[in-house]
Amino acid sequence: MLEGLFSAAAGMSAQQQQLDAISNDLANVNTNGYQSQRVAFNDLLYNDVNIAGSQSTDGAGANAEFVGRSQAQGALRETGQPLDVAIEGRGYIQVTLPGGQTALTRDGALGVDASGTIVNSQGHRLSPPIKLPAGVSPSELSISADGTVTAHGRTLGQIKLVTVTSPGHLVSLGGNLFGTTKDSGEPHAASGARLLQGGLEQSNVDMGTDMATMVSTQRAFQMDSSAIQLENQMMTIANQLRA
Length: 243
What we know:
single chain; alpha+beta; 2 domains; 2 helices; 26% helix
C-alpha cells in the first residue's frame, strides 16, 4: 500500500517542477532573447515482480527533469537603437564575467561603459572586447550581419556569434546568461546565424501554450493529491480492521 503513496508523491513532485518551469517562463515573457525551458517526464525505477505466476512491474511513479531550452526563434522587434542587435538563427553573444569566465547570451541590448567599451545590459564586456575611439559616439556605429563594428569606415572589432554542440546542456548563470559544461561542449563559430542592427529578439515563450500546460499540470497535481488522500483513508480503514 505504501507504493501508492510513493507513486502519488513522486507525481506531485514532478508536476511541481513543471509548474516551476512554467512560472519562470511566464515571468520572463518580456525578457530579451529569453529561451523557454523544456521539461520531460520519465518513469522512476521499476522492478519486475512475479505474483502467482503473473508478471508485472512494481515501482514508484514518475520523475521530471529539465532537458534544456527551446531553440525556437523569438519574434524580432525593431528599436532603432544603434547598439541593439537581434540574433537571427542559432547563436549566442559572448561576454566576459568579472571573474574572467566567459558566458553566453542572446540578449542583444548592448551599451557603452565609462571607458567606451561595448557591454551587455548587465555591464559585462563583450568577448573579445570592442572599444570605441575617443570622439566616436554609439550613434555613429554600423554593425553588419557578421558582427563587424565600424565607424567612419574604420573597423573597430567584431561581435562574434558562437554556439555549442549541445545547447541543451548549457547551465543557467542567472541574468539571461549561460555557461558551458563538459556535456554542452566549448563555444565555436555559429553557422548560419547573423546580427540585425537596430532590433532585439523577444522571448520565445508562447503564453497560450504555457497557460494551457499550466492548467493541465495543476489538474494532474490535484489528482495526485487526491490519490494520497485515498491511500491514507484505505490505510486508516486497514488499521481499524486489525484493531
